[in-house]
């Protein structure tokens, strides 16, 4: 008895290992039943089994479920009562796979278990029919093993049947599908299978044919033989074609655009193509046969890659730095996969792509990215639809949006709505290949603040020269604009100061003359008392004008000190001056001033503050409107210093929120042709010097929905030396 290599199915051609067959006793029958038709197999096997059962013998079928049903149907068709025969213990049907599982150990049939399982089945059947015809058995377990690729185990099972036949009496038929044997080398295998049997049934029932049928079948077989010979010739041509294709493939691999080599399990280079050798500047004898670690800067990285490959995993995108023939570094990207045979690692197939240009480009790109990220100017890129594609740190700082918030969003996010049309024009010029330099405009930050910016925009082109987007360099010039505005304001103030000094110098003498004339008129004893009061008020206002003129000249230094001012009287005097304007615009005047309210201040400056606020309220009020003047005792909200609140409120058109912060700036006015833009600036300066402040609240409402208007609130401290505080608008 010969035992095959275990497991035999690991060998490519099991027939090469087959030894001498085990003989079956001549007293028993062991038939190899080859078949190509299941129906023909079932009829022939059922006929043999039925004959044995009809003669009083026993039968066992160890087959697949489909064949089991076929056998039983055919036997019943012969008039046999299988149910009765089974009760007598002479008919047994077993599943081939389940029966195999009872005696297979690690994929190989165990002799002792086989004898116990199959021998036990045969012993039970033999007991029911001790005399001839005995037991007939049909089995498909060898076919199951063969189909699973366990060819050696199948032959071994045939041997075990022969060994069992030495001790027990039975006739066995084994089913072998002809589809298992389609290769031209399978003839040796079939001979070995036949050698384990003492009878062979071919695929066709040749013995049952008549003489005429045999002749016709012989002709068919001759035709099939000629067809097989022609197929063999075609196979030779195919092999020649395959050899040519193999040569072409070998040439293709040698001259492929990327480098290739094979590595054995320990890293030895088994084969390398010309492309890789050229990349490293080496000859085949300098590279093939040596260990790849000799050419790798980081051998530990190679060890890790080989471990992955030997475990059956693929390697993708591994970057290695290699040493070329002149010692210079050469970066490559390696993709590799293992080639295995019979579950064993043979070698790794590696594909190497030169990364020298990419690494150079990456280094340049990293430097450029560092420059972009460290720039104080915002550097932004967008596509031709205005969608942001990059956003540097300076852009994050200037606008308040992070890169994650802006990338993928429209650039219109930071452009004021009224300037959206500018973006369409910018994109049109970029698509035309134009460059935009130092374009000054306004942008909006995340907090809603508007900032002045200067833009330089250039088209971005792809590798083919096609314009695919725009690169924008944005500089925040808000501070610069403010400085320029402050410089212009300073220059205008200087000009106004020079002009005012000139005017003040020229009117000083006429004022002196008018003052003297009023003095003389007031001394007239016949002057009515009412006129005398009016002249007193005129004299006081002339004194205030003269005081302002002397201040404007610059050589006058005010040495006066704060006095206790009667607030109701001072306010009343100022309102009397504007009585004609109140009447002309039919403005209703409402006053709520605490009686006896006093404040320690320069009386002239206090009156000038009231005069400016009331005059502005009259200018803003519509025909038939109303103005409210209120004053009461209060304390400074931060220091707690005592003082007063003075409020002047109108029902005018209101001040838009966009310009509300600018109303205290010099030369800013909403009165167009009649305003100088200096009144509130002067008032704020006086209050700041005195430690007070001024605030503005205003509302612009749609007509018919709510009332518009402006409220100006002033705080003046009562102490003569109050600390200066910044006024709040």
Name the features:
729 residues, alpha+beta, Rossmann fold, Beta-Lactamase, 6-stranded parallel beta sheet, 5-stranded antiparallel beta sheet, elongated, disordered N terminus
Task: Describe the structure in your own words.
It contains 22 helices and 25 strands. Mean pLDDT is 83; it is low at 1-20, 554-558 and 720-729. It is elongated, with a radius of gyration of 56 Å. The chain has a six-stranded parallel beta sheet. The chain has a five-stranded antiparallel beta sheet with strand order 10-9-13-12-11. It has six domains: 8-208, 3-Layer(aba) Sandwich (Rossmann fold); 210-252; 255-359, PAS domain (Beta-Lactamase), CATH 3.30.450; 375-476, PAS domain (Beta-Lactamase, 2-Layer Sandwich); 477-559, Helix Hairpins (Orthogonal Bundle), CATH 1.10.287; 562-717, Histidine kinase-like ATPase, C-terminal domain (Heat Shock Protein 90, 2-Layer Sandwich). By secondary structure, it is α+β, with helices and mostly antiparallel strands. The protein is 44% helix and 23% strand.
């Amino acid at each position: 008895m010969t035992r095959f290599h275990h497991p035999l199915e690991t060998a490519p051609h099991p027939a090469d290992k087959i030894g001498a067959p085990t003989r079956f006793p001549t007293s028993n029958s062991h038939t190899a039943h080859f078949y190509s038709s299941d129906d023909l197999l079932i009829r022939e096997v059922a006929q043999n089994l039925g004959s044995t059962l009809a003669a009083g013998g026993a039968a066992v079928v160890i087959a697949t479920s489909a064949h089991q049903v076929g056998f039983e149907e055919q036997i019943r068709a012969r008039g046999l009562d299988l149910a009765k025969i089974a009760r007598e213990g002479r008919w047994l049907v077993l599943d081939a796979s389940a029966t195999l599982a009872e005696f297979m150990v690690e994929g190989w049939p165990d002799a002792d278990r086989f004898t116990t399982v199959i021998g036990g089945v045969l012993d039970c059947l033999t007991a029911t029919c001790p005399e001839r015809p005995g037991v007939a058995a049909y089995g498909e377990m060898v076919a199951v093993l063969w189909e699973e690729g366990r060819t050696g185990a199948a032959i071994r099972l045939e041997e075990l049947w022969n060994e069992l036949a030495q001790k027990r009496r039975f006739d066995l038929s084994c089913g072998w599908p002809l589809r298992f044997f389609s290769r031209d080398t399978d003839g040796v295998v079939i001979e070995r299978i036949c050698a384990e049997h003492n009878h062979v049934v071919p695929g066709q029932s040749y013995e049952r044919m008549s003489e005429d049928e045999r002749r016709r079948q012989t002709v068919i077989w001759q035709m099939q033989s000629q067809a097989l010979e022609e197929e063999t010739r075609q196979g030779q041509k195919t092999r020649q074609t395959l050899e040519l294709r193999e040569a072409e493939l070998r040439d293709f691999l040698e001259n492929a655009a990327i480098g290739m080599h094979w590595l054995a399990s320990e890293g030895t280079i088994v084969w390398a193509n010309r492309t890789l050798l050229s990349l490293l500047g080496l000859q085949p004898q300098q590279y093939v046969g040596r260990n790849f670690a000799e050419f790798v800067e980081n051998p530990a990285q190679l060890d890790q890659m080989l471990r992955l490959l030997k475990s059956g995993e693929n390697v993708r995108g591994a970057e290695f730095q290699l040493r070329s023939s002149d010692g210079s570094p050469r970066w490559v990207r390696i993709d590799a996969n293992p080639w295995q045979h019979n579950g064993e690692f043979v070698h790794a197939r590696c594909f190497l792509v030169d990364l020298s240009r990419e690494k150079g480009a990456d280094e340049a790109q990293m430097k450029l990215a560092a420059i972009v990220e460290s720039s104080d100017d915002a550097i932004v890129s967008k596509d031709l639809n205005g969608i942001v594609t990059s956003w540097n740190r300076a852009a994050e700082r200037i606008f308040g949006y992070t890169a994650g918030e802006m990338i993928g969003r429209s650039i219109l996010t930071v452009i004021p709505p009224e300037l959206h049309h500018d973006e369409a024009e910018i994109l049109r010029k970029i698509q035309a290949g134009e460059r935009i330099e130092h374009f000054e405009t306004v942008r909006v930050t995340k907090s809603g603040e508007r900032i002045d910016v200067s833009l330089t925009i250039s088209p971005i082109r792809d590798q083919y020269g096609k314009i695919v987007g725009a690169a924008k360099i944005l500089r925040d010039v808000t501070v610069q604009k403010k400085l320029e505005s402050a410089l212009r304001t300073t220059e205008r103030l200087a000009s106004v100061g020079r002009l005012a000094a000139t005017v003040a110098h020229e009117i000083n003498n006429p004022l002196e003359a008018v003052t003297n004339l009023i003095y003389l008129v007031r001394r007239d004893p016949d002057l009515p008392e009412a006129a005398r009061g009016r002249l007193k008020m005129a004299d006081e206002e002339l004194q205030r004008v003269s005081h302002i003129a002397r201040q404007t000249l610059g050589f006058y230094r005010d040495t006066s000190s704060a006095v206790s001012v009667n607030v109701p009287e001072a306010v009343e005097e100022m309102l009397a001056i504007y009585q004609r304007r109140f009447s002309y615009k039919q403005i209703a005047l409402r006053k709520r001033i605490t009686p006896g309210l006093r404040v320690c201040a320069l009386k002239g400056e206090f009156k000038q503050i009231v005069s400016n606020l009331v005059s502005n309220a009259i200018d803003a009020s519509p025909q038939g409107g109303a103005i409210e003047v209120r004053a009461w005792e209060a304390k400074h909200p931060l220091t707690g210093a005592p003082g007063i609140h003075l409020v002047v409120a109108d029902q005018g058109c209101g001040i838009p929120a966009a310009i509300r912060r600018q109303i205290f700036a010099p030369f800013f006015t909403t009165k167009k042709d009649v305003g100088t833009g200096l009144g509130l600036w002067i008032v704020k300066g006086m209050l700041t010097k005195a430690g007070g402040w001024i605030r503005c609240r205003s509302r612009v409402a749609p007509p018919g929905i709510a009332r518009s208007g402006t409220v100006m609130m002033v705080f003046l401290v009562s102490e003569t030396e109050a600390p200066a505080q910044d006024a709040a608008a």
